[in-house]
Amino acid sequence: MKVKNLLVAPFFAASLMLLSACDGSDLDGATLVVEKGCVACHGMKGKAIAPMYPNLNGQWEAYLRKQLVAYKDGSRVNAIMALQAQNLTHEEIAVLAAHYGE
Ligand code: HEC
Questions:
Q1: Is residue 39 within 6 Å of ligand 1 at its C-beta?
Q2: Per residue in 62-72, pLDDT tens?
Q3: What is the DSSP letter of 21?
Q4: Which pTM value belongs to this model?
Q5: Ligand 1 atom 9, closest CA
Q6: At what angle do helices 61-73 and 79-86 cross, to 10 degrees?
Q7: How far apart are CA 69 and CA 89, in angstroms?
């Protein structure tokens, strides 16, 4: 293998990783809170941007997951959060709960 190829290979791998981060299938919590818009109300790390939105930081991961599932299936009723949760898969809910919760 030529020296030039050895230098290019890591950059190629890195750009593939960047591409996969952009196609929506990446389930990294920090990316997902931006992609799904949670950050607009609950902030990047769960400290809400205004008092009308609940803080999620410091909350139990299992509690957050349960609430998101409840909004999604309609057993917890809130117009804003129902719209948010209906667009989430159960896998995304798990990642979001892990991101905000502990
Ligand atoms: C437009 C603002 C807004 C956005 C965007 C939003 N939320 Fe919410 N969220 C709220 C409000 C308001 C409540 C309180 C609803 C209620 O009274 O049940 C809430 C409640 C919650 C709760 C329950 C908190 C608790 O203490 O029981 C969780 C979990 C949650 N949101 C997660 C998310 C996630 C994850 C996203 C992104 C997919 C998101 N929210 C997007 C406004 C928002």
A1: no
A2: 999 999 999 99
A3: H
A4: 0.83
A5: 81
A6: 90
A7: 9
Question: What tens digit of pLDDT does each residue of 32-73 get?
Answer: 999 999 999 999 999 999 999 999 999 999 999 999 999 999
Give me 17's structure tokens: 């990783």
Closest ligand 1 atom number to CA of residue 76? 18
Please work out whether the CB of residue 78 comes within 6 Å of at least one atom of ligand 1: yes
- Separation of alpha carbons 60 and 62, rounded Å: 5
CATH superfamily, with its number, for domain 27-100 = Cytochrome c-like domain (1.10.760.10)
Give Cα 88 distance to the centre of its chain: 10
**31 and 21 Cβ atoms separated by less than 8 Å:** yes
Task: Please list, in sequence order, all residues whose beta carbon lies within 8 angstroms of the beta carbon of residue 93, skipping any fewer than 6 positions away.
Answer: 65, 68, 69, 72, 85
- Rounded Cα distance between 82 and 102, Å, is 23
Q: Which structure tokens are listed for 36?
A: 């799904």
Count of positions (residues) in the chain: 102
